[in-house]
Amino acid sequence: MPKIEENEVWFVVGSQSLYGSEVLETVARRSQEMASYINSNKNVPCKFVYKGTIKSNEEVTAIVKQANFDDNCVGIVAWCHTFSPSKMWINGLNLLQKPYCHFATQYNVEIPNEEIDMDFINLNQAAHGDREHGFIGARMRLHRKVIVGHWKDENVLKELGKWMRAAVGYKVSQNLSVVRFGDNMREVAVTEGDKIETQIKLGWQVNTWPVGDLVDEISKVTDEEVQVKVKEYRAEYQLDTDDLHAVNYQAKEEIAMERILQREHADAYTNTFQDLWGMEELPGIASQHLMARGYGYGAEGDWKTAAMVHIIKAMTQGLKGGSSFMEDYTYHYEKENGYSLGAHMLEVCPSIAAAKPRIEVHPLGIGGKDAPARLVFEGHEGKAVVISLIDMGGRLRLIVQDIECVKPIMEMPNLPVARVMWKIKPNLREGIRQWITAGGAHHTVLTYDATPEMLEDWAEMMDIEFVHLTQNTTTEELKKELHVNDLLWKLR
């Protein structure tokens, strides 16, 4: 996965030739100063690059064309230092294929009582210029982020940094390939979807590779390669089993799957316990370790969740909370003290572990294969969200629900899988009701790092529906929102 700091966000400043060369030189000097300051802030994950002051239709169009075809550029941030007549932006913005942010800021913090005169006003017209620029964005129905505040304000730069992370998610989405080892689990509805529409909308290539291809690749893995991989496992995790054959086989599976993924330039994959022909075990630690290294994974052929796992991991590089494939397994309906227990048969990412995971081997009880090695651990405490991307037939809906992960209230000594316990907002009963009402899937991405704002920005960039279930969401209002959304999206 490319490093997030290698991406660039281009800072384009609007002005015009009316004010003369001295003003334009000041604008350029200040813009470079602002870019340098923003680029050095810890909340800004990508390079923030000043690309010049735009003064004409031709200049806007040229910079947009450059941005569209520069693989390092993940988005454009525009600001108007002076008044920048926005008709000259139309042709360029019509061509824009990258995420777009309107940064409504100004160079100075305060109005200078003694200095303010007509020269000051002519130079410092951000309030004037940004409103002109805002109109053209609204008139053109642009997908855009509007960030308001002074460029040295820490909260403003946090907001800008989150938008940049969403822009990285947009870039990753446009170049994402998902390998499906076999098909979806039989008769399951929510893991299905329109792959053609998804590629048109999100850019994903989703294709199937026979499990036989994977089995053939497994047979080519050498004992030396297995021992190198197992050495990685021993360094990162606590070995708590005598069944080294199961651990070694997981190493073979990981090596083989990664070879195919790299060969196909893919960053996400699926499998299903219903299609393990020729394999000894369902991948357990193999999938968990690949996820910890940034690959996306979805069980039972769930290619939408697999893709979202990788996109979220790409967006949140450098953050420490972790993200994982997840599933609501069972509920604790104690009155006034309700919890959801998230887990899966095997495949929960150790990036969310509260302590060093243990390598254990236990029978799976499903799939008819040997007992697989897996990582067993508890997820750590903290605020998080669960995310579900569903196909509504004709459009995609991204559902995000706020949760609070807690230390499990019981030990569950006989549950041989990784698990996370959380409180759903606003409470268990209403949270479940709202999730089901919105059509949320049983598979999700659980992330401590991606915020609802970041995910809403990504949905805006991708032009898909966004539904956020919060502490303040009521089922009645949610139903109204979903009905209105249905109507609006059908009219588009």
From TrEMBL:
Domain L-arabinose isomerase central: 178-318
Domain L-arabinose isomerase N-terminal per the UniProt entry, residue ranges: 8-172
Cofactor stoichiometry and binding remark: Binds 1 Mn(2+) ion per subunit.
Gene Ontology cellular component terms for the protein in this record: cytosol
EC number: 5.3.1.4
Species assigned in the record: Longilinea arvoryzae
Protein name from the UniProt record: L-arabinose isomerase
Family of the protein in this entry: Belongs to the arabinose isomerase family.
GO terms (BP aspect): L-arabinose catabolic process to D-xylulose 5-phosphate
The L-arabinose isomerase C-terminal domain, residue ranges: 322-465
Catalyzed reactions: beta-L-arabinopyranose = L-ribulose
Pfam families per UniProt: AraA_central, AraA_N, Arabinose_Iso_C
Top-level EC class as recorded in UniProt: isomerase
Cofactor(s) needed: Mn(2+)
Function: Catalyzes the conversion of L-arabinose to L-ribulose.
GO molecular function terms noted in the UniProt entry: L-arabinose isomerase activity; manganese ion binding
Pathway: Carbohydrate degradation; L-arabinose degradation via L-ribulose; D-xylulose 5-phosphate from L-arabinose (bacterial route): step 1/3
